[in-house]
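Quick one, probably user error.
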């Protein structure tokens, strides 16, 4: 607890109180009941985000020619015939592409609404492209918004706009309008979980912060568990969109118990009253009011003025390339997150390749695989921190190789249920590896650079990855060539990402000593010495000390 000066016997003037280096953290603690409540509420934001991404699985299920759709040739001449796949009309003048269809399927899907069959099937991937583009744009907008708007307000704006845009997306009867508002809905989801991520990072510390960020994606997976059950209540794609949109109203209600980021308020707010109230409420709930100093308000004001007058320096993008192993880490991190974020979204959507009859079970299995991956990331980070990147990389290399086994039974004549089971098994293993890698990268990547490089480093890596994420829907189109083709493409990316992860090295504390053996007349003697620059590059791998809260 800070000490305070009082007037001594000589009536000397009272010294100006000075704020400690982390006044907020010393009062809040690393984790407590207040943080648990906030974390659980913010975690819920991932559920509608996963619904809007994965809803295409149920709003646009594949339908089969002849039995479920036929080309409509009622307006053609009597001698016109239709091809076996119902995609072309054979006439005296040649072959024409069919543009009108009749449907016989009990669920009125997005495919039927916009005639996304035959060659137009590619537009299912096109709608998903616009969703992912919205995630990219929304993430950038959220980052820039939070320079002036608080994270909690950013979340609220995202929630309100997501409800509006989600409803319009569901009622849109023009395909271009549908894609546009699907993009806007995704951008609103990005506002929600980006603002939430900022608050989570601010109110937790140490290994608890790592655990919270790693497990943030588990609620995305819980959303996948709930989506099939939610979709089963509706017989129309519009109803599904309304069903995944309106639960966000619950999140708006729960914002009453969601605090803003205290440190953001300290840096940006005009006064410290709101920040002070948040910290006092948190201290009361966590039973840490004894940590609040007598002159708490004065110390907060001093710290706020210090942050505003001397903001922390952020490195330029060019500076990210300087330093020991900087180039290796920068390139490997960009490639790794790009391939794993492609796989994270693409492999989920790829379950459409394994058959419409298995969508519900396969969606749940993929969600379970993601949860397993998150907990593996947590285990590696907390228990094997020094070699966590290599463990994650090795897991993904092996999982990627397993995924290629699909070619061994692709053309075999076997029971459909058995084949579908084999497909989902060999797809679930690399999916768990992808979730493991993505969670670990998001939570631990900042440890690879010194504090002044963290923000630009993370922004560069995440934005780069989300740009490449736009290709994920089109990788799934490879299933038109062969079912194993799209899965093999994702597994190849897993292997590439695994190799890149192995190139990342957890920094060691700068105070670590190196033990060497020297030969003397009396025999071998172990000598401890401070590492030289050469030793640091070879053994410690970094010159600078980073705030790595987890010990190996």
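Nope, works fine. Designed sequence:
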């Amino acid at each position: 607890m800070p000490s305070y000066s009082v007037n001594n016997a000589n009536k000397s003037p009272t010294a100006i109180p000075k704020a400690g280096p982390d006044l907020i953290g010393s009062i809040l603690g690393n984790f407590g009941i207040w943080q648990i409540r906030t974390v659980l509420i913010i975690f819920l934001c991932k559920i509608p985000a996963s619904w809007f991404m994965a809803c295409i699985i149920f709003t646009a299920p594949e339908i089969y020619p002849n039995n479920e759709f036929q080309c409509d040739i009622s307006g053609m001449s009597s001698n016109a015939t239709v091809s076996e796949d119902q995609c072309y009309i054979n006439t005296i003048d040649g072959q024409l592409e069919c543009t009108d269809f009749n449907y016989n399927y009990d669920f009125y899907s997005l495919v039927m609404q916009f005639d996304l069959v035959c060659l137009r099937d590619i537009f299912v991937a096109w709608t998903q492209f616009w969703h992912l583009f919205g995630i990219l744009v929304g993430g950038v907008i959220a980052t820039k918004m939070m320079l002036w708007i608080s994270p909690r307000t950013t979340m609220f704006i995202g929630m309100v706009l997501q409800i509006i845009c989600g409803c319009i997306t569901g009622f849109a009867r023009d395909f271009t309008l549908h894609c546009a508002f699907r993009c806007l809905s995704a951008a609103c989801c990005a506002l929600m979980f980006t603002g939430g991520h900022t608050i989570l990072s601010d109110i937790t510390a140490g290994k608890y912060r790592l655990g919270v960020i790693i497990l943030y994606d588990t609620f995305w997976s819980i959303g996948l568990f709930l989506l099939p059950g939610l979709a089963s209540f509706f017989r129309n794609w519009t109803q599904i969109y309304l069903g995944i949109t309106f639960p966000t109203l619950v999140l708006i209600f729960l914002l009453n118990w969601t605090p803003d980021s205290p440190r953001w308020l300290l840096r940006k707010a005009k006064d410290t009253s709101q920040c002070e109230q948040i910290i006092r409420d948190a201290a009361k709930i966590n039973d840490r009011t004894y940590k609040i100093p007598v002159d708490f308000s004065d110390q907060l004001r001093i710290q706020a003025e210090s942050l505003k007058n001397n903001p922390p320096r952020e490195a330029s993008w060019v500076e990210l390339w300087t330093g020991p192993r900087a180039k290796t880490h920068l390139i490997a991190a960009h490639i790794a997150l790009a391939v794993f974020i492609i796989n994270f979204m693409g492999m989920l959507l790829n379950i459409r390749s394994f058959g419409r009859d298995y969508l519900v079970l396969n969606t749940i299995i993929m969600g379970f695989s993601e949860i397993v991956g998150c907990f593996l990331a947590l285990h590696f980070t907390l228990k094997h921190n020094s070699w966590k990147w290599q463990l994650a990389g090795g897991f993904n290399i092996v999982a990627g190789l397993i995924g290629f086994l699909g070619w061994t039974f692709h053309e075999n004549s076997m029971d459909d249920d058995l084949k579908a089971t084999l497909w989902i098994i060999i797809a679930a293993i690399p999916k768990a590896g992808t979730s493991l890698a993505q969670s670990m990268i998001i939570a631990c990547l900042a440890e690879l650079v010194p504090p002044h490089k963290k923000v630009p480093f993370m922004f560069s890596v995440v934005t780069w990855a989300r740009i490449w994420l736009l290709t994920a829907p089109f990788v799934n189109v490879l299933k038109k060539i062969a079912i194993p083709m799209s899965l093999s493409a994702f597994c190849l990316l897993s292997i590439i990402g695994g190799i890149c992860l192995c190139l990342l090295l957890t920094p060691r504390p700068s105070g670590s000593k190196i033990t060497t053996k020297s030969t003397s007349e009396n025999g071998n003697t172990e000598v401890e010495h401070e590492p030289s620059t050469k030793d640091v590059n070879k053994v410690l791998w970094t010159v600078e000390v980073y705030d790595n809260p987890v010990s190996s």
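The beta strands are 69-71, 81-82, 88-91, 94-97, 101-103, 514-520, 523-529.
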